[in-house]
């Protein structure tokens, strides 16, 4: 399995003229997976050899602005560059609880309509992922009567046995999230390549000694 990583931004707090806010792209089999989407990610993509239209999954580590303020703008640009296609697979977005509300409200308030579907999968954090005074419970967002529904997606809880969250399982790999401690609940992401059975004929080897 061929993997290529491109760092689009490694700065913190805000972008600078020569250094973007947090964002990196993993390219595999013609797809691009974006990890974090700080302000200026679109511009960095344009300067790279990557094609933004190939982004199929987006992973957000935590809800600080320098890791997600570029997301609504990127989604809108991708929409402007695409044509309506009801059969197109949705762009999957993964991140902490509250991300669905952020995406939906940003698009709703700016009167932005995407020409492709998105799904937002939220990871429910545990209270020990940040200082107690910083923890905010976003589980009740957008659940009141009469509120429009945000984008669809799953709500993912910690698997105590694995101490992680199962996000993606494909034929070749598994993607899991694990908990990190930060000023707000944060997550790291692990891509595990599945074991591939060998092609040796064990019995023939034994017969040959």
TrEMBL record:
Keywords: Endonuclease, Hydrolase, Metal-binding, Nuclease, tRNA processing, Zinc
Cited InterPro entries: RibonucZ/Hydroxyglut_hydro, RNase_Z/BN
SUPFAM superfamilies given in the database record: Metallo-hydrolase/oxidoreductase (SSF56281)
GO molecular function list: 3'-tRNA processing endoribonuclease activity; metal ion binding
Keyword NAD: no
CDD domains: RNaseZ_ZiPD-like_MBL-fold
Known cofactor(s): Zn(2+)
Cross-referenced Pfam families: Anti-Pycsar_Apyc1
Record bears the keyword Hydrolase: yes
This protein's GO CC annotations: nucleus
Complex and partners: Homodimer.
The protein, known as: RNZ1 protein
The organism of origin for this protein: Toxostoma redivivum
Lineage: Eukaryota, Metazoa, Chordata, Craniata, Vertebrata
């Amino acid at each position: 399995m061929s993997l290529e990583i491109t760092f689009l931004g490694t700065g913190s707090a805000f972008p600078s003229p020569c250094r973007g806010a947090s964002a990196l792209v993993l390219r595999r089999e013609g797809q691009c997976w974006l990890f974090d989407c700080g302000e200026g990610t679109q511009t960095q993509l344009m300067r790279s050899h990557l094609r933004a239209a190939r982004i199929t999954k987006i992973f957000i580590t935590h809800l600080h602005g320098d890791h997600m303020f570029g997301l609504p703008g990127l989604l809108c640009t991708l929409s402007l560059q695409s044509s309506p296609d009801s059969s197109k697979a949705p762009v999957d977005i993964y991140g902490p609880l509250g991300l669905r509300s952020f995406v939906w409200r940003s698009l709703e308030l700016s009167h932005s309509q995407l020409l492709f579907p998105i799904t937002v999968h939220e990871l429910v954090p545990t209270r020990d992922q940040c200082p107690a005074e910083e923890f905010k419970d976003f589980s009740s967002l957008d659940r009141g009567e009469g509120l429009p529904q945000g984008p669809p997606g799953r709500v993912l809880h910690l698997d105590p046995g694995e101490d992680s969250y199962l996000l993606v399982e494909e034929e070749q790999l598994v993607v899991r999230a694990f908990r990190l401690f930060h000023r707000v609940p944060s997550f790291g992401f692990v891509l595990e390549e599945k074991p591939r059975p060998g092609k040796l004929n064990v019995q023939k080897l034994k017969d040959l000694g």
